[in-house]
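Entry details:
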Amino acid sequence: MTLAVSVAPIAAASAQDTASCHCVVIQSSHSPNAFQRRSSGTLAFIQSRPQDALANNIGFGYGVDGTYMFRLDQAGFFGLRADAGFLQYGEESKHVPLSSTIGGRVQVDVSTTNYIVPLSIGPQLMWPKGSIRPYVNAGVGGQFFFTNSSVEGSDNSTSFANTTNQWDKTMTWVAGGGVYVPIYQRRFNVLLDLGAQWVNGGRARYLKPGSIQDLPDSQIAITSMESDTHMVVMRFGVRLGM
């Protein structure tokens, strides 16, 4: 009886302390918000296929493209899509002495590379169910053409000097389509992205391998081309999202 009386006040005090405790409960799992649930991204390998007058001057280009997609509805029928690509369509290099003063004891590699940077933003419509999910998209944007020359030592691959020989830009509109193929669907979804886009580019000036000629006294002659810049961009990528 004495033991029971002694324990009772201790239990009451413990209960009072628990009731008055302002404890913070830490959630171990993070729930994504609405913006995160509706966002997805794609990284794709791309190939550019010049069309019309552009095809007479330059060849195929190869590079990468990043796409951000935001679903405008819960299911994903409608979305807003932004694309940014980086393509290389020609390269030339030569092995020369570093300078006439030093002579031929120090050799360097001079590389000249031609690039295209296509950008676009616009709507996308998609069928969001099934093992094959077709989509179509359209957009407006622009593309940049530029040629860069760099110098690196013959025994390493780190450039120590570079120059942009020429660059130009033009407005574009794009239209395309493709399919998504789900390959993993849990909390995080992974889909293959197979598609193509028609790029209707305006007139721009650009170079190709052989457009830059070296002249005496360290001078150069640049022969640029100008035309409409239509091309088809093929893509093979992986889309990640919730």
Remarks:
- Residues 1-8, 10-15 have pLDDT under 50 and may be disordered.
- The longest strand covers residues 159-185.
